[in-house]
């Protein structure tokens, strides 16, 4: 039971970190495009 909870926690944290990374990457790309256009 504890192992399952630990795996679930690890997967949840991993997905959150992955989503945060993708969001930051897209935000940086958008800012770069805006700076290039301006």
What does this structure look like?
95% of the residues lie in helices and 0% in strands. The chain has one helix spanning 2-37. It contains 1 helix and no strands. The mean pLDDT is 94. It is rod-shaped, with a radius of gyration of 16 Å. The longest helix is centred in the middle third of the chain and has 36 residues, at 2-37. It has 38 residues and is mostly helical.
Run of helices and strands: H
Q: What is the tally of beta strands?
A: 0
The shape, in one word, is rod-shaped
Distance between the termini: 55 Å
Q: Indicate the low-confidence ranges by residue numbers.
A: none
Q: Into which percent range does the helicity of residues fall? A: over 70%
In terms of DSSP E residues, the strand content is under 5%
Mean pLDDT: 94
What's the main sheet like?
A: none
Secondary structural class: mainly alpha
How many helical elements?
A: 1
Taking Cα atoms only, what radius of gyration do you get, to the nearest Å?
Answer: 16 Å
What labels would you give this structure?
95% helix; 0% strand; 38 residues
Topology:
Layout: H1 2-37
Q: Could you give a short description of this structure?
A:
This protein is mainly α. The protein has 1 helix and no strands.
